[in-house]
Every structure is written in C-alpha cells, then in structure tokens.
C-alpha cells in the first residue's frame, strides 16, 4: 500500500507545484484546465446552436432528415485527428482548429435527440396548440421545444461528456487543454504524474458539467420531474429517455376517476 | 350560426373526406356530428376553425366566411376541445386554461383570475391549479380541456370526440357536466362522436354521416329515432331504437295501480281479498315507510295460513324501481321487463312506492305515445 500512497502523493505534489506559474499564463495545470473548459464549452454551445435549427428544419421538412442524418454520421466516422489536421491550413493554431471539429461532433450527437424530442411531442398536444391559435413559430418555441427539452438535454449530456473527453485529442495540433498535460508533459517525458492529473481533471470536468446539466434540467422542466414523486405519468408526454427515474411513484389517491390518457390518437 | 355551403374535402390521392356538406348549425344549441370512422365528421368539424381547408364550397360563421380571417386569430375566437384533452404537459393546469387569454394579450393576472373562475365552473378544486396535467386523472384532464376551450368566452365551442378516451362511468359524468354547462352558457356547440348514445343524450340536433363523407340525416334526436331516412341510418342507430325513443317520454303520465300495494303488517287473508277484488296475480308488499319489500303471488297467498302477516313471508325480489317524476318510459319498461312479477315499481324522489304498473299497461301507454 505504501508504494501506491507514495505514488499518489507524488502526483498531487506535482499538480500543486505546477498548478500555475505567476507571470506565465501559458504554463501550469490551471491554464490547461481553463483552456480545456473553454474549448469544450464553446464547441458544445456552437453544436447546440447548430443542432436546434437544423433539427427543427428536419422535423418540419421530413424529407430533409435522412440525407442530413447520413451526412452528419459520415462526418462522425472521420477520425477526429484527421479533422484537426484538415483544419490546420485554414485556421492555423487558433482555438478554431479544435472548436470547429468538436462542434461538428456535438452536432452529430445532438441532432437525432433534437429531432426525436420534437417528434415525440404528442400529436394531440400539437393539434391542441394549433387549435388554440398558436402561429407556427410561437408553437415551436413555446410548446414543442419545451416539451422536447428533456430529450434534448439528455442528448446534451451525452454530447458534452464526449466533447470534453475529445478535446484532449486536439493536443496533437498544439491545443487540447488538459490533453497537453497528457501528451507533451507526460507521454513524451515518460512521466506519469501529468497524465494522471490530466485524466482526473478531465473526468472531474465532465462530472461537473453533467451535474450542471442535470440541475438545468430540473429548473427548466419541473413538469417532467414532479411526475416521479407524486403523480401518475402521462405516458404520451414522457420522453423515453426520462422514463427510467419516474415510473415508480403512483399516488393511490388519484386512481379514482382515472381515464386512460395514453390511447393513440385516432381521428 | 355556422353554415356549411357545399363544403367538400378531396385529397390529392382521390380520397373524399367530405363530399359537399350543406348544413346549418343553430346558435346556442348543441349539434352532434355522428358517424362511423371515415365518414368525414371530424374533417367537417375542423373546417370551422380552418384546421382543414375545404377544397370547394365554404364555411360561414355568423355569415362571415372563415377564410376571410387569419387562421390563428380565428381559432382564438373558437373554443376547441380535443380527444385526450391535448393539454400542454409543461404547463400547470392554471396556465393551460389561461392559454388563449394569454395569446389574446390579457395580462397574466387577469388571465389567471379567469382560469380560477373556469376551474370552479367545470368542477376542479382550486388546489389543482398548480398541478401538471399528468398528475390528473383522465376525467380531470378532460375538464381542464373544456375549461381551456371556454377561457376566452368564445361563442362557438368545437368538441372532437371529447369523452372517448375515458371509461364509461367517467364519460357519463362528463356528459352530464356538459349538459349542465350548456344549460348555463348557451354556446353554439358542435360535438363529434362515433357513439350514437352520446349523440342522442347530448344533441339538440344530430347530423348522421355515412362513409364517403356524406350527410345521411340531420334531425332532432327524436325524429332520428322515429324516422330514420334509410337503412344505413337505421342500422347505425341500432335496432332497439324503438325502446331508446321511450327515453324521450316521461313516466309521470303512466297510470299506476295503488290498490295492489300492501302493508307488511297486513294479513294473508286481507291480501287475498285485495288481489281477488283487483283481479291481479301479484301484490307488492311495502314497509311502514312505504319502501318496497318484494312481490307476493296470489297463488302463493292461497297456500299460506290466512292469519300470517305479509312481512313474515319470503317475498319475490322486486328488481329495480323507477322514479315516476324524473325517469322516462324507457326506465319504467326496463324495470318491468327485469321484474319477476312482470311489473314495475314506481317510487317518488324519496324511494316511497307510489304504485305499480304491469307490462300490459306499459304497452298501452307506449302505444299511445309512439303512435
């Protein structure tokens, strides 16, 4: 055990000693962490900003979806390293070399969630919104997107974790945040402390981001959450991705007068 | 008043949803569109708020072509209740109900006050205001759907199979509620259903649609039952239409026999005298509060010792009674058919026996009203 303990305290010592270098913003663990978070978050936000309108378009014009989905899937099959190198002639060693491919990967993961989320809006809800006098845009923004939100956020959680882990690969082109610790300081010098610190901080960043998204979901979709605690779930309105945590709670006081709210729509 | 003038809907693939509908829906009344699936009843309904545009002909609301108005604005002035309620899952009950007032630009405070009013009107508890739709039962959800449709006080209310997704007991309750609301509000209601019983129960006028989107008959419920125009309407209504029609005639016109109603403290001897004088094969025994206990047959009385009180005999069950003031001839006939004595027991609102009526006497009464 002592050997493990010594090793671990060695890693921590290295991290503390190299946390930051006053006067030199480029070196140290902390600037790498900040860079990592910046590259990941900007990519995720751009990916989300692209996935939302593209997803809306794919739902509105259904024929658009198969080619778009095939297109982004092909993109996903391209190794990230290749994409980073392909970007170099255009963006040089700026952040964009990392951000453009990472945003595209986020888009690939998010797009099906946006489309599925919007498609899962029950037809009777959509019809009711039309009949109440919502215009198409207002309906999309105030009814369909909120109802799709749990599925979209579920996709965002997957996409953000994937993106945060993939930022490290960009260290091959001189970017990559914590990946630089792993590649330049650790791998090249045959020194494991920076590698461990890089991995641990990447995982912690992913966890923290995921926790933030869960919190955001709780705040943004209180209606999806309350079902698990005290009510019957209206199946038609529950996104499949959210069904796991919520079906347990059934309120016995509400069984009287219970109709079946989940029959398929028939005209 | 809603007028369909040759309104038709043909789809590009050749399907005819509605084949030229001419019909006038009266203001302040409930008109039911009924028919099997594929008869164009829902399509016709949706032409009124432009959720479906006719391919030829037009629809007028109070003389104005619906196509002269922007669809979204038109729809805010027409209440719509959808099958399964179609509530917005991400909005509370209160905000669901306030939907149209908010779209119309009322302030939030005024819209919520209106929502509270409507919750009361449709029989929802104020405590349910902040619940989300999935926390309600199907019947409660449908009430919210009705409240939402009425929120901006539209003169016209369209209801598309509003009660088809709830169980029969809840459905009957919601139908009663609709009748009560309509007696109070006098909206121009157009309701679509495939359930002819619901149509007859709720409608002031009924439009029966046949497959292919044609109007088969447009009449009052009573006329529909007495004079179906053709075989399709007759079979759609069902072959018990004669019996159903009796629901439109009150039972209070029946002449009830009071002489064969006997007290449980009367003796067998007295009972025999009574039935022999009346020439009736059965007598009804009631308790001191005149609530029915059961039937006793004249043949049976002859075999019992003459001094025994009727209350001590094993009596034949009387089945169910009918309320003379509130029930219809249909209920009275049903009570008579189900009774082992072949006679129905008529009671007042407190369940006290007013008299009995035999199947033969009922037959005479039915013949005289339906002749």
UniProtKB/TrEMBL annotation, chain A:
Q: Where is the composition biased (Basic residues)?
A: 227-236
- Localization per record: Cell membrane; Membrane
Q: Does the keyword Transmembrane helix apply?
A: yes
User: Per its UniProt entry, which superkingdom is the organism in?
Assistant: Bacteria
One Pfam match, by short name? Answer: BPD_transp_1
Domain ABC transmembrane type-1, first and last residues per copy = 33-213
Swiss-Prot/TrEMBL keywords: Membrane, Transmembrane, Transmembrane helix, Transport
Where in the sequence does UniProt note compositional bias of the Low complexity kind? Answer: 237-257
In terms of CDD domains, this protein maps to: TM_PBP2
Q: Mind telling me which residue stretches traverse the membrane in this protein?
A: 39-59, 71-90, 96-115, 147-175, 195-216
UniProt-annotated stretches for the region Disordered: 226-267
- Membrane topology note: Multi-pass membrane protein
Q: Which family does it belong to?
A: Belongs to the binding-protein-dependent transport system permease family.
- Please give the name of this protein: ABC transporter permease
Per the UniProt entry, what species is this protein from, by scientific name?
Answer: Nocardiopsis coralli
Automatic annotation (TrEMBL), chain B:
Pfam families tied to this protein: ABC_tran
The answer to whether keyword DNA damage applies is no
Q: For the ABC transporter domain, which residue ranges apply?
A: 2-237
**Listed InterPro entries:** AAA+_ATPase, ABC_transporter-like_ATP-bd, ABC_transporter-like_CS, CBS_dom_sf, P-loop_NTPase
A Gene Ontology molecular function term for this protein is: ATP binding
User: What keywords are assigned to this protein?
Assistant: ATP-binding, Nucleotide-binding, Transport
Sorted alphabetically, which SMART domains does this protein's record hold? AAA (SM00382)
So what family is this one in?
Belongs to the ABC transporter superfamily.
Name of this chain's protein: ATP-binding cassette domain-containing protein
Which classification does the entry list for the species? Answer: Bacteria, Bacillati, Actinomycetota, Actinomycetes, Streptosporangiales
